[in-house]
Amino acid sequence: MMNVLNCEARLQLPNLERYLHLITDRVMSFDARMFRNDERLDFRFAFGEAAFEMKPDVLVLRAGAGDRDGLARIKDILATAVEIYAKEDEPEVVWIGDLAGDTRPAQFREMTVIHVADLTPHMRRIRLAGEDLVRFGKFQGMHIRILFPTASVPDPVWPSLGANGLPVWPSDDRRPTARVYTIRALDLQAGHIDVDFLIHDGESVGSAWAIRARAGHKVGIMGPVGRPVRPADWYVLGADETGLPAIGRLLETLPPQTRGIAFVEIADRNERQQINNVTQIELHWLERDGRAAGTDGRLAEQILSARWPGQGTAFGWFAAEAEAAKLVRSTWRDQMGLGRDQTIATAYWRRGQAGLMAG
Ligand SMILES: Cc1cc2nc3c(=O)[nH]c(=O)nc-3n(C[C@H](O)[C@H](O)[C@H](O)COP(=O)(O)OP(=O)(O)OC[C@H]3O[C@@H](n4cnc5c(N)ncnc54)[C@H](O)[C@@H]3O)c2cc1C
Q: Residue 130 has what pLDDT?
């Protein structure tokens, strides 16, 4: 790829050796290939390139891409990985070079509600329209952070872009509240996305907003976020209602010859929904029938008892309450020895905790 846009950041990280492998592992999970050349690591993504140059006392991060979206994405991936894993060295990422003075986050759009429909008693599909949504179909990330107005901040100020390539937020009295959702469907031509909101019990931000949503209401979205689901011949997919939008999207968009098995946990029979499954993946509904959400162990049990095929490529994907996700992740990774490139098991919510994964 021709990199027409390039930038770099210089960092002093005295303890780099301790956590470099964690940073590179995270960067590679965005489908990057890594090449090592003495004191330099090069990463190739579908949308650009990055490099780490390890000089005495300084780490130089380099990012290059063919367009603004690609460069913004790489800056975001590198800066986030450094901020998470190099915390002990208090890193200060400041990008210099192309687009360094940009103050509009490439990953942000303001969206307007144009349609609201109930799919089932507890699942509400909301269509959001916005400008230039192309990037939300790129990077293989299916998810977004939705920035909501709330009762205490009814008129939020949207984030700007910091010198580190990450968003800068307004003070708390103007800051929107974020929650993570899935783009269930994306229509680039028409300029809108669909998001399926679970209407769940308890005080909330996302679910409460969805209950009141009307045409004309505004939210912000940032993304796309999430690790890519790898191409495979066979999948085992498991989710409760919060992961159902992602499973619906996968069943409607994976290649028709794809095989596998999917289990979706729902409250009861009335929560079954129509999915235009174009694949050979068998879809099974598991109804809780009175058990509280996040307490029914059958979903994890079914997923873990699936027999992985001996031939061809296979991928495991799971999204549900935190306890179930932890059990599935540790069994896949630690007991079955499956790698990060063969599995994604994510906590989509936690019983009794607001805003999991939204930070
Ligand atoms: C990558 C990703 C993609 C997601 N995609 C979707 C999606 O497309 N649609 C969707 O509806 N959700 C989705 N979720 C889950 C959603 O982000 C969480 O359920 C989130 O907590 C909802 O925010 P809230 O403001 O409604 O509730 P919060 O304010 O976060 O929580 C308030 C209370 O509600 C409880 N609660 C939260 N979720 C549930 C639930 N599912 N059932 C019962 N109680 C709950 C919490 O434990 C807490 O006690 C996704 C999560 C992730 C990480």
A: 98
